[in-house]
Write a structure and sequence with these properties.
202 residues; alpha+beta; five-stranded antiparallel sheet; 4 helices; elongated
Amino acid sequence: MSETSPWWVRANSHVLEMALGLGLLLVGLFKVVFPILGVFGPLPPMTDTRTVSVAASAPHATASGSVTLRGSGQADLVFHAPGLGDRLLLILPGLTGAILLVVIFYVLLLTARTFHAGDFFVPQNTRRLLVIAGALLLIGTIPPALDVLTTNLLVEGTPVEQAVRTPYAMSTAAVFGCLLTAAAAAAFRRGARLREDTEGLV
């Protein structure tokens, strides 16, 4: 944005950067740093429960000493005093999604900083939008796959193993967001080319 831009336009740009920076900080702390410290560090585990699907014939509560399965349909798989491996498996799907979300916030912040010069259609923004699209696609596919894998590992060898079902459910919202972001990247690429053509005529 140029210096002649209205003050409220410049203020909106700074507010956007602050909001993205705050989102980056909060996600980084509460979804990445604290869960990791709960596994390897001084903090208590962030979670000892995994929501799972169970067979229709499964009892409403099944306990095996180290793990309890409560509910039917969508049930809570509760671990009592989980070890290091179990704690890591419990946070892995959410941690992976959070790291990808941190990448998205960071790239959005870099993109927002280019708005100060009033030049939206720069080649870097096209590439950044493609990075965001890729991260959204990974969020929609990788954490659900990790949820299936880690749930199978968590219940393996326990009495609740036969009751737990682990269907794969891709996040359609994240995949749809990936498609929209890729379309926006194509629009930015076209805008950048038009800008270059216009500059060549001057």
